[in-house]
Specification:
By secondary structure, the protein is α/β, with parallel strands linked by helices. It is about 20% helix and about 30% strand. The protein has one domain: UDP N-Acetylglucosamine Acyltransferase, domain 1 (3 Solenoid), CATH 2.160.10. It has a 7-stranded mixed sheet. It has a 5-stranded parallel sheet with strand order 2-5-8-13-16, covered by helices on one side. Helix 2 packs antiparallel against helix 3. It is globular. This is Maltose O-acetyltransferase. Keywords: Acyltransferase, Repeat, Transferase. It comes from Methylobacterium cerastii. Pfam families: Hexapep, Mac.
């Protein structure tokens, strides 16, 4: 039996984002985002309930400060005590996993969505995603960009405004555009 466009998307294969099932998921996500982003004055416990109803996994003590934006929500898994500051964007067409104790600064973008490099394929409307895995106890400075397919090791530091185009080793500090290692633990 052929895979649905949603199954292809989650598997990181070429898919069509205009598919009716994916459009329905996106519409449901938009409605959830309206509710979540209106909950800025709500208690952390009330916001946690909202996160748990929509994300793939939410550890104890998670804080995601509104406004927050994502594509679907169900592909996001946050470990215990993860903190996402104001204005984070997570394009979660495939899995985004953030480990325990990781702190994410304001305006950070975590982008799994990607597009074919071949112009003809891209013109056809096909796209794909590459998962992002961020380890435990990582600190990501404000306005950093984490690009598709990147893995960030435990205890790493990503400087503010860095554009992370490749994997970051555990314990490393990266800065710049493109991000480069400037220190290791």
């Amino acid at each position: 039996m052929p895979k649905s466009e949603k199954q292809k998307m989650i598997a990181g294969e070429l898919y069509r984002a205009g598919d009716l099932e994916l459009q329905a998921d996106a519409a449901a996500n938009k409605a959830w985002l309206v509710r979540y982003n209106a909950a800025l004055a709500a208690s952390p416990a009330e916001r946690r309930v909202l996160l748990m109803e929509h994300f793939g996994g939410v550890g104890a003590g998670v804080v995601v400060r509104p406004p927050f934006h994502c594509d679907y929500g169900y592909n996001i898994t946050l470990g215990a005590d993860v903190f996402l500051n104001f204005g984070c964007i997570v394009l979660d067409v495939v899995a985004v996993t953030i480990g325990d104790g990781t702190q994410v600064g304001p305006g950070v973008q975590i982008l799994t969505a990607d597009h074919p490099r071949d112009a003809e394929t891209r013109r056809s409307g096909l796209e794909f995603g590459r998962p992002i895995a961020i380890g435990a106890n990582v600190w990501i400075g404000g306005a950093a960009l984490i690009l598709p397919g990147v893995t960030v090791g435990d205890d790493a530091v990503i400087g503010a405004g860095a554009v992370v185009t490749r994997d970051v080793p555990a314990g490393a500090t990266v800065v710049g555009n493109p991000a480069r290692v400037v220190a290791t633990r």
